[in-house]
Structure formats: structure tokens, C-alpha cells
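Chapter review: from sequence to fold.
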Amino acid sequence: MFTDSPTPQNISEGKLLSDDRFLREVAHLYYDEGQTQENIAEAQYCSRQTISKALQRARDRGIVRISVIPEQRTGYLRNLARDLRLRLGLEDLILVPGRNMDEEQSSASDVLDDIAGTAADYLDQLLTDEDILAVSGGKDTMRQVVRYLKPTKLLPHLRIVPTIGFVRPQTSVGDANLTSFDIATAYGAKHNWLPIPAIVESQEQREQARALPIARDVLKIMEDANIIMTGLWPPFAQKAIFTQQKIEEITTYNPAVDINHWIFDNVGACINDRLESPPYYLTGLEIPRLKEKIQQSHARVILVAGANLKYIPAIRAALKAGIANILITDHVTAETLLKKPE
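The C-alpha cell string follows.
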């Protein structure tokens, strides 16, 4: 049996329980990774009783929030999802409980975590060994989906690719390449990098990048993907790639959503194709063609977004564009989508 033993720094139990970093680490190991209290205690050089107290302290301080959704509540969400799915014209609509979006930021973060966790579970149930999955990047949503992913099967023949190349010279946790690699690793699946710039300055550069042998086969796999999962962004989320003149020009078209730097207006029309002199050219998946892909090959395009008022016009525009047929969001966002924009 494991007994009390000092930490390497000989820190007392009282000091450990007052350290938020320790409480967060213990909570992550227990709730996210599913480790037992005994294993955590051994790894942290303390007793199981200390770990039990740390988990209780984490709940008391709001580091961990546990909620039980009553059966009548789950029934309400199920019925709401069915009704809204038909009204929004979606193949599937998955809802998590939302909160008043005027509440503090921590509440929105909790809802976004629920959305990401639900998206991870949905993806796990959907994937088979014969699928091709293409994923976007994003540190706020897609990275969270990766964090909550708990594969229930190995899929060695599943192929996973990013929908976009590298946006910056330095990689980051939000890169689509890294997101796709991490999901492939989790499933023991086949992965391909898209090692080309996501954004180039001319049509000629675009054609040259896409023609490179190292990219050509990956782009073909991407085009054949039958499952696509993506987040979205409000317009001009990355202003560094625009001149002020281009921002002013694009603004005249009423931009509402950015997906992989493809920008759509508030009625779902793509703005990139309407500019006489585009500010950039994109080498990855052609997002406007997803509508055709859904209609012709019955692809499943999963949009993961919500928990924030700024995403509502963006989600509405994406759905009007017909570039997603599955939405994973919270019920407050879903209900707001049906209201007439102010």
C-alpha cells in the first residue's frame, strides 16, 4: 500500500493544496487522462489522501466544475436538436448545454470545452478504417478537440490530412498540420503533412506550390476526404496578412466568416472570388467547393463552433454558404441562429 512520502522538494501537504498549479495538474491527470488517485499520488510523491483533498480543493476553487444534466434536460436538448436540425437544413446537429453569453468569460470557456469534448466523441464514433479525414487548425477549438480525444479503436488504414499548409515559418499548437498529425497518432492512422505555404502572393506561386511532388499526392488525398472537421473565425482574425486598403475593400462586401482564410459574406457568398486583386492566394482545400462536395459525394463536413456571440454571424454565414452539413455547438447558439439578425 502506498503511504505518505515527502515530495522531492519536501513540500508540505498544506503548501501543495494551496498551489493552483498542483491542483490543476492533479485535476488534469484525474479527469482528462483518467488516471487513478493511487497512480497520481505515486507520480506526485504524495499520499492518495492528498490527491483526494486536491481534487476536492480544485472543485471548491472552481478549477473543476462537475455538472449532472437531468434526464428531462437531455430530453429537451435532444428534441431541440431534432427541430433545429430540420429548420437549419443540416444532416446532424449536436448540442451541449449553453449559458447566457453575457456571463463571465470562464463560463464561455466551460461551454467551449463541452463543445470540443462532444466533437471529439462524435468524431470517434464516426470514423472507420476506410475513411479519409481532413482537419483545419485553430488553437481555441480544434486543438481542444485533440485534447479531449479518447480513441476507442485503432484505425491503421484511416488517412488523415490537414486542410491547409503552414501559415507561419514557426509551427504552433494551432497548425492544421500538427492537429492532423496528433489525431493520426491517437488512432495509429496514416498521416501526411502538407509542407507548403498556406498563403502565397500570386496565382503562379499557388500553382507552383500545389504542383510540387511533396504536396501533389497530399492534395489529392485531401480532395478525396469524405469527412472534414473545421472550426471558423470572425473576419480579419489575422490582420497581419491584410493591408489596410484591402481590409477596407473587403469590408464593403459585409464579411461574416473566415475559414482557412476563405472569407464569406453574411449571405454565404465567397468574397475571395469577387475581388479583382485578391490580397493573397490559398494553396489548401478550396472551402467554397465543400457545398458541391456535400451535394455530390455526400461528404460529412463538421463545423465545431459556439459559446461566444462573435461566432453567431460566422456560423450563420457558413450555413448559408452550404459548406457544412453537421454542426456541433451549444443550445443557446443554436437558438440564436434562428433569430433574425439585428
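Two observations follow directly from the output. Residues 129 and 157 are 5 Å apart (CA to CA). The longest strand covers residues 92-96.
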